[in-house]
Amino acid sequence: MTAGPQPPAAVPRRNRTRLTWWAVALPTAALAVFLLLLTFLLTASPASADGPSDAGASGGGAVAQVVRFARYAAERLAP
Question: Whole-prediction pTM value?
Fold first, then answer.
């Protein structure tokens, strides 16, 4: 007669679950598509021309603003 519930048997190493190929490929493909669209949106918009624009006194398009922000962040993070 058993005294209580029995612990589960050890799962053999070959029966353990692993990620299938699509569990890695789908998120990777989704990230690649997102980055491609983001690049397209930043470079193909009418306001992305580097130079004066109708955006106001700040000047520059989206690409110029991203470059300025990257330089600003690099200067702030530099020791």
Answer: 0.39
In sequence order, what DSSP letters do the residues of 6-49 get, joined into one string?
PPPPPPPGGGS----HHHHHHHHHHHHHHHHHHHHHHHHSGGGS
Q: What is the pLDDT of residue 32?
A: 94
What is the pLDDT averaged over residues 37-60?
63
Token readout for 35 is 């980055």
Query: So what's the pLDDT on residue 27?
Result: 93
Cα distances (angstroms) measured from residue 2 to each of 10, 20, 33 = 19, 39, 57
Sign of the C-alpha dihedral computed for residues 56, 60, 66 and 72 taken in this order: negative
CA neighbours within 13 Å on the CB side: how many for 46? Answer: 3
Long-range contacts of 37-42 (CB under 8 A, 24+ apart): 42/66
